[in-house]
Amino acid sequence: MSDKMKVILDCDTGSDDAVAIMMAILSPKIDLLGVTTVAGNKEINFTTDNTLRVVDMLRSDTPVYRGCATSMVAKLLPNRHGDYTGMTGVKADKLDEKGEVISYHHDCLPMPAPVSREQPEHGVWWLIDTLMKSEGDITLIPTGPLTNIGMALRLEPRIAEKIKQIIFMGGGFKVFNATAASEFNIWADPEAAQIVLTSGVRTITMVPLDATHQANFTREDEAELRKIGTPLAIAVADLLDERIVAYNAYQPQDLPDSAPLHDALCVAYLLDPEVLRDVRHMRVDVDMSGGFADGQTICDTRAYPDRPENCYVALGADRLRFSRMVIDMIRAFR
Ligand code: RIB
Ligand code: CA
Which CATH fold would you assign to the domain 5-332? Predict the structure, then answer.
């Protein structure tokens, strides 16, 4: 019997999701059972196509399942998403020197168009089937809006007992990006996030912006990747360059000329828990009011919260430990 960790990724592939998928495919410690896709950074056609691009680039046969194209209910109320352009939750309205819009994620990743095809089954049904047939040994790593996982839990609540753990990228303790109070993945589908947080899954770990912004990649990291020189390393260097330009334009970071690779930190945590710092067990709920705090992750730091703790929340990260892991994995792939 293999002692690899069984993992399912659920991604709105985008540039940082792409690196999360790469790590899960490249790690000898992970048995990646499949990737489900969700709308988020981009529409579902793009997030699915981008996922296939990554899988193909790594010459992997990981199956890809298309999931939900829209949030559970949030988009039914136009005012909740009124102020934002596109799907990203962030206004992309600055131009670079070539006159192109500066963006965290372009529609298509800078990799060849995919040759492999998505699976015929819907991602949510595949998640349910796979989890129900499992021995309770699968880790879910969602790195986009939690629509697919929320839907799966609504359709078949018994999967909650089957999931070993969920490590999700999303939320903020004191750091936000979509609105003054919310992080994008949670803001994009607050109801789904609340369903996940109150599902009763044994272990849920939230990797919020407070942690990911402490684990940024720099121009030195980009240069190291370019020096490796393989098509994979160059593709990641290009992604990094795009992200650093976008973060400098829209969300300048404490560490100058740097950018987070949020989603990849979740996979890194599975491989090496020391990569996250200051992980606290808390009560976390999601605001779904449609008001100023819509999509906020409300972390109860009181000594005696009204409701039981349901989530580990990472408030810090070890930047160098993380960047070393990512770059070494990319270097090893030929
Ligand atoms: O807020 C950052 C998150 O939103 C990342 O997962 C990014 O890929 C987008 O989904
Ligand atoms: Ca993502």
Answer: Inosine-uridine Nucleoside N-ribohydrolase; Chain A (3.90.245)
